[in-house]
Amino acid sequence: VQAVRESLGLGGRNIVLAVGRLSFEKGHADLLHAVHALPAEVLRDLRLVFAGDGPELLPLQKLAAKLGLGETVVFAGLRK
Asked: How far apart (Å, rounded) are the C-alpha atoms in residues 45 and 50?
């Protein structure tokens, strides 16, 4: 577990992990909006990790940037 944390630059922060295909019907954009609504003091110690790939990858990356979550969200890609 520690090796994965280090490879993704997560340190000791709290993690919200979303695993699966990145497709519209799964509501990943809703999760980004929910994380964006969290207080700044919570976001400092939080990383939202998307492990997976799919047609919504680029739109989700753009939404994360638009919401100012670049430091909070990690797109880890497809993992075994």
From this structure: 17
Give Dmax over CA atoms of the chain in angstroms: 33
Side chain identity at residue 8, one-letter code: L
Strand boundaries in the chain, DSSP class E: 14-19, 46-51, 73-77
Q: What is the pLDDT of residues 8-40, one digit of tens each?
A: 888 888 999 999 999 999 999 999 999 999 999
Q: How far is CA 54 from the centre of its chain?
A: 14
pTM above 0.70, yes or no: yes
- Spatial contact of 18 and 30, defined as CB atoms under 8 Å apart: no
